[in-house]
Amino acid sequence: MSVLLTATCAVPAAGAVLTAALPAGSSESRRRTTKAVALGASAVTLVLAAVVAARFDPHGARFQLNESYSWIRSFGITFSLGVDGIGAVLALLTAVLVPLVILASWHDADPAPAGPDGTFENKRRTQAFFALILAVEAMVVVSFYATDVFVFYVFFEAMLIPMYFLIGGFGDRAGGPESARQRSYAAVKFLLYNLLGGLVMLAAVIGLYVTAQDQGFGTFDLPTLTSAIADGRLQLTGTVEKALFLGFFFAFAVKAPLWPLHTWLPNAMGESTAGTAVLITAVVDKVGTFAMLRFCLGLFPNASKTFAPAILVLALVGIVYGALLAIGQKDIKRLVAYASISHFGFIIMGVFALTSQGQSGATLYMVNHGLSTAAWMLVAGFLISRRGSRLIADYGGVQKVAPVLAGTFLIGSLATLSLPGLAPFVSEFLVLVGTFTRYPAIGIVATFGIVLAALYALLLYQRTMTGPVKDGVRTMPDLKARELAVVGPLVALTILLGVYPKPLTDLVNPSVNATLSQVHQTDPAPAHPVAATSGGEQK
Fold first, then answer.
1. How high is the pLDDT of residue 25?
2. pLDDT (tens digit per residue) in 78-123
3. Quick one: what percent of the chain has pLDDT higher than 90?
């Protein structure tokens, strides 16, 4: 039995333990050692995740590289891991982003002087910060690989703990005098919302187990359960299936986040460091949309079809609502947060359009949104760290004093509005086409989200990068080598996947087709099929 998946999950976990255990101290050498260990662990994880993706055979079994270890035998719980194309791609996205987040956050946890004598506050701050980042990575990767429902639930909930401390304990230093109180509020709100979703899901997990056990399936193994449901050996009555579906979906919708369960996100992203904000929206939130595909559609196919129209309406509201609020924001980070709410609306819409184009586009959107939003947010973080303010009104004329910073920010802005040639365009196009073929009215209205995205993205660039140079911007330095090492790969991947997305589509399409077959759905026939031809002329 291969242990590749276990190793991919264990390396960041071991790195987190090792980083946390390093000797505390305020010296630069000790902090540098801490950062090097964290970066090294994340780099090894990236190599392993890339090997997993490379070894996955799109033409083979749905779940590959399977591993299973006995855990709680009396309840049929095993620590089971397996990877499909969607999980492989999203785990690789996580592994790509975490080293870049660590590099971008290189000085975010450096302790600040706590008095005229130059002593430092909280000497373990640096070790804790980078250990928490690695802990989040480990839990997210397990979530993408888990093929046991209970194991998934445990790590789905456990990742809230390190994220809570990252938001509440290591927030944005540009938040002003009320920053500590606002960070605490944002962290508690994040935790309470997601804990509520998790508790509802726990009840649904228990209900699924009891129902399955009554019919001779005393297990949490996902492939076993989905196979039994698909061929009728495990039957869920209409009311039971709907109730269980709603329990799972509620937890995923909170984490995604779907309107109207989104209100924790702007607070959390606004009060976090730029690196933590990227972890929230580009890594952790993707677990919610991924789980909708894997668990909601796989375990509850009939309920998924029943609730799909209502979910599409909520997603549509989220697209327009998030974009409109993004346009009116005065805070750069909150603008990116509301833009992400709009983008998650597109992802969820693609999932529940129940078409191959929609779900393929939704999966690509998870990846491409992760890359483009990471680039946008991290460059915004570099900008904020230089000026010491998150307010859009405090900027102007940046492109005249820091042209490279402005140029990379422009690419992130154009990717956010899904400019053709950049990665998000492919995803958004597929989602809209896939939605229109089954729900044309929703697809048409959703296209207005593209127009609104152009407004908030270009207005932000215009107000911060162009015009007269503001006083606080005149001495602003351009991007440094470390910062270019962070942004460069994100920009390159955004362009590469925008012109050649085939490597990703080849991996995810078989898993998408398998998901559609589980819900007994096929793509709608064209409304106006091509007429039969004879002798080159239409009949």
1. 61
2. 899 999 999 999 999 999 999 999 999 888 877 665 444 444 444 4
3. 48
**CA pair distance 238, 240, nearest whole angstrom:** 6
Q: What is the pLDDT of residues 509-535, one digit of tens each?
A: 888 888 887 776 676 766 665 544 444
pLDDT band per the 50, 70, 90 thresholds, residue 271: confident
The C-alpha torsion from 178 through 182 and 185 to 190, rounded to 10°, is -170
Type of residue at 53: A
Neighbours of 141 (CB within 10 A): 31
pTM: predicted TM-score of the whole model, two decimal places: 0.90
N- to C-terminal Cα distance for the chain?
59
Start-end of H helices in 256-355: 264-271, 274-278, 285-291, 297-299, 301-327, 332-352
> Helices marked H in 159-221 — which ranges?
160-169, 179-214
Residue 436 CB-half CA count within 13 A: 14
Q: What is the DSSP string of 44-73?
A: HHHHHHHHHHHH--TTS-SSEEEEEEEEEG
How many Å apart are CA 299 and CA 286, to the nearest integer?
A: 19
SS3 state of residue 273: coil
Burial of residue 490, with CB atoms counted within 10 A of its CB: 0-12 exposed, 13-18 middle, 19 or more buried: buried
What's phi and psi for 443, nearest 5 deg?
-65, -40
Query: How far is Cα 447 from Cα 410, in angstroms, rounded to an integer?
Result: 22
Kindly report, residue by residue over 6-39, the tens digit of the pLDDT.
Answer: 999 999 999 999 988 887 666 777 788 888 999 9
- Region of 391 (left: φ > 0; alpha: ψ -120 to 50; beta: rest) is beta
Per-residue exposure over 324-337, b if at least 16 CB sit within 10 Å of its own CB, e if not: ebbbebebbbbbbb
Look at residues 318, 382, 386 and name the one whose alpha carbon lies nearest to residue 349.
318
- Whether 163 and 190 have beta carbons less than 8 Å apart is answered as yes
Please state the length of the chain.
539
DSSP letters along 431-481, please?
A: HHHHHHHH-HHHHHHHTHHHHHHHHHHHHHHHHHHSSSPPGGGTT-----H
What amino acid is encoded at 11 in this protein? V
Element housing 138 (H / E): helix 125-145
Q: 66 in the Ramachandran plot: left (φ > 0), alpha (ψ -120 to 50) or beta?
A: beta
C-alpha 24/C-alpha 127 separation (Å) is 7
DSSP 8-state secondary structure symbol assigned to residue 531: P
**Residues paired with residue 77 on neighbouring β-strands, in sequence order:** 72
Query: Which amino acid type is present at position 85?
Result: G
User: Cα–Cα distance between 315 and 446 in angstroms, integer?
Assistant: 9
